[in-house]
Amino acid sequence: MNFLHLERATLDSFLPGLDETLARRPLTELESAPSPAIDAFREAGGPGLLVPAQNAGSGLTPLQAVRVQRAVGARCPSLAVATTMHHFSVAGLVEAAKYGTGVEGLLLEAVATDRLLLASGFAEGRTGQNILRPHITAERRGERILLNGSKMPCSLSRSMDLLTASVTMKDDDGVDRLAVALVPAESPGIEVRPFWRNPILAGAESDEVVLTDVEVDPEMVVLTDVTADAVPDSLNVAGFLWFELLLTAAYLGVASALVERVLERPGAADDPTPYLVGVDGAMLAVEAVARAMDDEEWGDALLVRALTARYAAQDAIAETTRVCLAALGGMAFIGSPDGSYLAAAAVGLTFHPPSRARMARPLRDWLDGRPLRIG
């Protein structure tokens, strides 16, 4: 079948055999915790996909990356969500390397060659709180920096080699600023606690990571220009662009797995457009922004387009999952949990930041000519 052929061909060109490995296992097994999909991803060389070629990585373009994420999402939703957080962290490290001390490049090479997994400890998960206000603080003590706080949920919490975390830290003028810290997972003071209680997406290992007086080298902390006004700087704009596109593609892949089951059901000869048009149209919007990342400025205008594609995908997923479950029918619902699981998992895109409700005022302000703020 030609549906998802391009995405799976892209995945196979960079991670040969991964799609086949995932396809051989039942969905229930892949979505369990611990999931065998994470080791399969690591063994296939997945950690280095977004690492630049000069740092021994695959150097995927944004367009290639979103196609890979859709393909992964169509096989294993938990892996797609978890690896989105890894790729987002790698992309942030690539951007930080432009302003850092040079250690970032060495870390990127280690990610690719040693197949290290990065967990994303960036602020989210607390209703009503701005996502640019982290739950982890950084305090200078002599020549070291101490981190305290927690991140919940934190995908790849039990498989991570490094934690990349947003933290608040005072600059030389005493102003609280957003910073990005890189923390080895085996550092003293790091503890992983159970947090995720829903069987949906349990394989993403989204538990709580607690940091208590965790020491890091100052070279492993990159201070940004973001303060309490929540106006993102270039580093954060880049991060949000990657995050929104990769995440949206991943969840479109989950919905696409449900579409694929409808298209391949016995005796299927009905009009395929009610199942195809929504997810494929939303993916075209994601791809349009991904292409634009290659030749346009990474600024507010492009980020707004990424958010628009993401919110359009949420609507498409809601409608597509509804019509697909109806088309599969009651016997499919009774006979296998796969359809209802995929429908429930695909809706998860709605819960990631920034929510449409939180961005309503910031988007209105941006349309009226003010700087874009992230709610």
Question: What attributes characterize this protein structure?
Answer:
oxidoreductase activity, 12 helices, 15% strand, AcylCo_DH-like_C, 375 residues, Butyryl-CoA Dehydrogenase, subunit A, domain 2, 48% helix, oxidoreductase, Butyryl-CoA Dehydrogenase, subunit A, domain 3, single chain, AcylCoA_DH/ox_N_sf, four-stranded mixed β-sheet, alpha+beta, Butyryl-Coa Dehydrogenase, subunit A, domain 1
Description:
- This protein has 375 residues and is α+β, with helices and mostly antiparallel strands.
- It folds into 3 domains: 5-113, Butyryl-Coa Dehydrogenase, subunit A, domain 1; 118-223, Butyryl-CoA Dehydrogenase, subunit A, domain 2; 234-367, Butyryl-CoA Dehydrogenase, subunit A, domain 3 (Up-down Bundle).
- Helix content is 48%, strand content 15%.
- The protein has 12 helices and 8 strands.
- It has helices at 5-14, 18-23, 27-30, 36-43, 62-75, 77-96, 103-113, 234-263, 273-292, 300-335, 338-346, 356-367; strands spanning 118-121, 136-141, 144-154, 162-170, 176-184, 190-193, 207-216, 221-223.
- The strands form 2 sheets. A 4-stranded mixed β-sheet has the order 1-4-5-8. Strands 2-3-7-6 form a 4-stranded antiparallel β-sheet, with no helix packed on it.
- A hairpin with a 2-residue loop joins strand 2 (136-141) and strand 3.
- Helix 1 crosses helix 5 and helix 10 (300-335) runs antiparallel to helix 11.
- 48% of the residues are buried.
- The model has no long low-confidence stretch (mean pLDDT 90).
Going by CATH, the homologous superfamily of the largest domain would be: Butyryl-CoA Dehydrogenase, subunit A, domain 3
Secondary structure tally: strands: 8
Structural domain tally: 3
> Which CATH architecture of the largest domain would you pick?
Up-down Bundle
From the N-terminal CA to the C-terminal CA, the straight-line distance is 41 Å
GO molecular function: oxidoreductase activity
Protein name: Acyl-CoA dehydrogenase family protein
InterPro entries: Acyl-CoA_Oxase/DH_mid-dom_sf, AcylCo_DH-like_C, AcylCoA_DH/ox_N_sf, AcylCoA_DH/oxidase_NM_dom_sf
Enzyme class: oxidoreductase
